[in-house]
Fold this sequence. Notes:
Blueprint: E1 2-4, H1 8-19, E2 24-27, E3 39-41, E4 47-49, E5 56-58, H2 61-68, E6 73-75, E7 80-83, E8 89-92, H3 96-103, H4 110-118, H5 130-137, H6 139-155, H7 165-168, E9 186-190, H8 194-202, E10 207-210, E11 226-228, H9 232-235, E12 245-256, E13 265-268, E14 276-279, E15 293-303, E16 313-314, H10 321-333, E17 339-341, H11 343-347, H12 353-370
Parallel strand pairs: 1-2, 1-11, 2-10, 7-13, 11-17
Antiparallel strand pairs: 3-4, 5-9, 6-9, 7-8, 12-15, 12-16, 13-14, 14-15
Amino acid sequence: MLVVGAGFAGAVYARELAEAGYEVEVIDKRSHIAGNCYDYVHSSGVRIHHYGPHLFHTSNMRVVEWLNTFTDWVPYDHCVVARLPDGRLVPAPVNLDTVNAVFGTQLETPQEVADFLSTRVIARDPITSAEDHLYSKIGPDLTDLFFRPYTQKMWELDLSEVDASVVQRLQIRTDRENRYFPSDTFQAMPKDGYTKIFERIFDHSKISMRLNTEFSASMLADYDACFNSMPIDEFFGYEFGELPYRSIRFHLTEVPKADAPEHVVINYTDTSPYTRETWWHRIPAHLVSDTGTVLRTVEEPCDYKDNHLERYYPVKTSDGRFEKIYKLYQEKAAANDRLVFIGRCGTYQYLDMHQVINQSLTHVGKWIQDHR
């Protein structure tokens, strides 16, 4: 069996196939395993995620139980603040304290916040775009402050062009809850980092690994089946058109620990090219050794073509035009029963880690059952 890609999708497929008795070869064009979850300990003594922060959260205990075989955990509830134009830092996404800070109000209860926001909203029906959703939930003032500039930078699209699902992932609160993922029952970070998880997943006698290896269609003849996490449009030579992605340029700086803020992530509400900064030592198990120097990463979104074809986020528009293109590739791929596309790029979906793992466990389990 050939697995293309050593991120979470490929890792789950490889391990489950190996456990089922299949010989599996994993290839990846990068020089490391773990895909976009790849992390390492910097010379400063701080663990850093090379491709931006990956915060694990889920309510799917099946996923947690599967990962428990490969890692111990340290508790972590992720919180984010946004920097207002006057420099103040307020909770993000919006909650009671955010509303009071922006409008100068002194609201004290969730009902008071809900009543106040009801005077600011502009109801939209149907809800198709991110603007529709936000205008209906919090109104134009908060939308234009916290979401419109950020979205323009992140997606190079206006909120009216972005699919509603992109912002529906974020909870708008009327209480003082300031956790970013308040509804998830499990929030933690792997004790030894993400890369160590992947080392343990791939540590199986039936799994072999080749890094720095590009996929070629000629490889398919050498394997009974291929589980491929490469971009599906690239595989088919862009026959039906390009599936666009947004990428991120990461700007890493070393800072004296004494000068670091208390926050992990600070979002920018300005019109600069940057969207947020991450202070790695504030995440549990990331200050591995205290050298007095810490790390900050500032993110600058861009088109994937402007960043060495590094694809991070599939572009989801309110008119669904790229999903229509993807469906054509999906239908063509379905004609080859020895080829399965997996992961974010293979299925052109905006998936969190736990969603990739769950989807992969489900699909590889069905494949194994169907091929017994």
